[in-house]
Amino acid sequence: MSCLFATVVRSLSPAWMLAFAIVGVTGCQTLFSSRPHNKELADGNTPAAPTCEVVMRDSGGHTRPLLAPVADGTTVNSVLEFANAGWRFRKFDVTVLRKGRSADTGRPTVQEMNCEFDTKARGVTFETDYAIRPGDRVLIEEQESSPISEALGILRNVLPG
Description:
Blueprint lengths: L1 H10 L2 H13 L12 H5 L7 E7 L5 E7 L6 H8 L1 H4 L3 E10 L6 E8 L1 E2 L4 E2 L12 E6 L4 H12 L3
Parallel strand pairs: 1-7
Antiparallel strand pairs: 1-2, 3-4, 3-7, 5-6
């Protein structure tokens, strides 16, 4: 048995041996898991530094949750940069969800703040670049668009009727 194993190992390329070593150390389920990619979220531990939750959803409906650090001066654009959203998606919608309490009833509420995407700047506009607080949730959803659909949208806005 060990002779057969040695023969198989010698016949594998170094790339396959590296892949098998990674699978052996991390386990197969971590390669294809939909669990959060941050260690703090994956372990269920509360991180020591203040954070906000970032949920990235592609056009196929697949989600990727992250924890982004929050410090003084953290804005929506800095969270987008942390999540590499401009690199991952060509166009996307951004919404910030902030938990609070109603002043009248004291009931929990969620404030929804939509951000306007600027394609030239590859981020949100200055007017909607809100400050991020610890505990906020930033939703980044990919928009399906193509050059043809964008051209049709421009024509629809330009042509009368």
